[in-house]
Amino acid sequence: MTTTPLPAHTVPPLLDPIFLTDLDRLDIRTNQRILEIGAGTGNITAHLAQLVGRYGSVTAVDADTSRLTPTSVIDLALRDLDREMLPGKLDSYDHIIARWPHPLRDPIDVVEQMIARLRPGGWLVLADFTPTPPRIHRAPDNEDATLIHAVMQQLHTTITNRDGGTWTADPETLLLNNGMVQYCVHTTTETWTGGGPGGRLVTGVVTHRRPHLTGITDADADRFAALMADPTVLLSSYERRFIHARKGN
Which of the residues 61, 130, 159, 231 has the least number of beta carbons within 10 Å of its own beta carbon? Predict the structure, then answer.
């Protein structure tokens, strides 16, 4: 377990709610070894640990592991992916699961490191955001709709980058050129209603990222929180992308 402290790049769990369902596409079995990049708060880490059982292992990688708890199954790896290599040897993991952690200097290099560490026949899952902006379907008035859009756009930029938080703009070419097969990709967008889980989630994320938002006053943030609790408000979530590919034998 790495103990050298590095600056934290905390990422809210915007990819977590539908990630558990997406994991059903993988044949994760007991005793397998999993590498998880972008472990965040550890919600997915704990689920993976249950799937692999007491004799399996999950290596959870993040730039801030303070919110994670190591166990006999879960090993923590503190990594700044812009400066340090991923843990593990060549062909050492049965599956590798990676959520977009933060804007990376060279995401393609990180993906190639993952592929090198994946065993033949194992699955790689990459989750990220697309640049598609959320849509405001219903708001009390135009001013409130403009505020919701401004905050959602600011939030998207702070946790990804101005072009969207993507591993690569052309994942198919990168993966297939590196020996991956059975490539597939799908995108997901949910409808969020004020007062519902989506509204509460994005309110918590805005609170978490408040120091990084520019042009958003405290009054704006308070109004946004009120709107996210208003059941008449209806908006789409960020569009999330999931990429699956199996390593050839």
Answer: 231
